[in-house]
Design brief:
single chain; three-stranded antiparallel sheet; alpha+beta; elongated; about 400 residues; 9 strands; four-stranded antiparallel sheet; 13 helices; 2 domains; Chitinase A, domain 3
Length: about 400
């Protein structure tokens, strides 16, 4: 899970939608700004679970893990990671995994080894949750070191939104509380998570803002882009496969496409203004289905999956340089490498720099786990989550 850039989107806003109040299917924003169904997998395995007795629950974290929500599981410097902090993210990473399968999985392979060194699926889920919980704790710890505190308006805004939710639930606060529990949330944790987002913004400004003395220059942003494999390219594509079937065209048709590509390249090489001509020829001849939506070309990074040969050919070009005819499985390409405006990626560069600083401080402090952390059983936690969610679904359906 790559959080280096995406942790800039920590804002959870309000994690519950109004429709969540009719069931236990709230939506929570993940650490990368994506959405994950708070209880989507319950339909897959909750039917095999026995519902908990909600009247006996005062602490949802204790109910699903045997650990009180305020129990300290680990420390970074003077900042604690509580069971509530950790179990929210453990629920999130498991739900996020299940979402990849459309909620169709009914069991999870907790004990299956994923790596040669014996890492099981269950341990992998625990490790992923630890990584995210540690990141949030480090925001708090760095803020403490720098004397930063959350803007009071964050808690005030959450109070107002929470009150609105209660009103929209027919003034039945228990509906809101139960819906939160189904996502391993409480009102206090929701406020804390949003305060973390505010602290993230404050730390970025302190360390890398315009007045910090470390505001990334264009050269530094460009270096960040190079390190992460970003490039901007336009291309003229003449396809050698059928767009509907993806089957290769007849040899004669392929030969004609190659001849056309060679002719277009010759025109560009003979032109006094090849950049302007490139756009004209691209608009006239390119068979790229994304052209209308991307008239200024594409910006790719190292994480993007591209047809074999395309990335390599593009990266061989200097900015402003036009390639020879490049053949891939899709057809014949003529590429034009374009510059990237550093201003558009300065925020991503700053996020990366802050993550590096957080990682360095984390390594210096070291994560100190308590004995309570080692008592966590991910399989038992998940079984209990299904029982809790089933009880909440039943309660909210009445």
């Amino acid at each position: 899970m790559n959080h280096t850039k995406r942790f800039g989107a920590l804002a959870l806003a309000l994690v519950m939608t109004l429709t969540a109040l009719t069931g236990c299917g709230g939506t929570s924003a993940g650490p990368d700004g994506s959405s994950a169904s708070g209880s989507g997998s319950a339909s897959g395995s909750a039917s095999q679970a026995e519902p908990m007795d909600l009247s006996q629950i005062t602490d949802p974290y204790l109910a699903v893990s045997g650990l009180a929500g305020d129990e300290t599981l680990a420390r970074l410097g003077e900042t604690a990671i509580t069971a509530a902090d950790y179990l929210y993210w453990l629920d999130w990473v498991i739900e996020n995994y299940l979402d990849q399968f459309g909620g169709q999985m009914t069991t999870l392979p907790w004990d299956v080894q994923m790596t040669d060194d014996g890492l099981t699926f269950g341990q992998y889920m625990l490790d992923q949750a630890t990584e995210i919980a540690v990141f949030h704790a480090m925001l708090r710890e760095l803020a403490r070191q720098e004397g930063l505190t959350p803007d009071p308006s964050v808690a005030a805004d959450m109070d107002m939104q929470y009150a609105d939710m209660v009103v929209q639930a027919g003034s039945d606060e228990s509906q809101v509380i139960y819906t939160f529990w189904g996502n391993m949330l409480t009102k206090d944790l929701l406020i804390k998570l949003n305060e973390n987002n505010d602290l993230y913004d404050q730390l970025q400004e302190l360390y890398f803002g315009e007045d910090s003395g470390s505001y990334p220059t264009d050269a530094e942003v460009n270096a960040y882009l190079d390190e992460n494999g970003y490039f901007h390219v336009k291309h003229i594509l003449l396809m050698t496969i059928d767009q509907d079937t993806s089957e290769p065209l007849e040899e004669e048709a392929i030969a004609q496409k190659k001849a056309t590509a060679d002719d277009l390249l010759a025109q560009l090489q003979a032109s006094e203004d090849p950049i302007t001509l490139f756009d004209q020829l691209m608009n006239q001849h390119s068979e790229d289905g994304g052209l209308l939506l991307n008239p200024e070309g594409y910006i790719f990074s190292a994480s993007d999956s591209l047809v074999g040969g395309f990335r390599e050919a593009a990266l061989e070009l200097s900015v402003g340089e036009i390639s020879d005819v490049v053949e891939t499985d899709y057809g014949y390409h003529i590429m034009l490498r374009l510059p990237i405006d550093p201003a558009e990626y300065r925020a991503a560069c700053i996020s990366s720099l802050l993550r590096e600083k957080i990682d360095q401080e984390r390594d210096r402090l070291g994560l100190e786990k308590t004995a309570a952390f080692d008592t966590l059983d991910v399989s038992s936690f998940w079984d209990n989550m299904q029982s809790l969610q089933l009880a909440i679904q039943t309660e909210l359906a009445d």
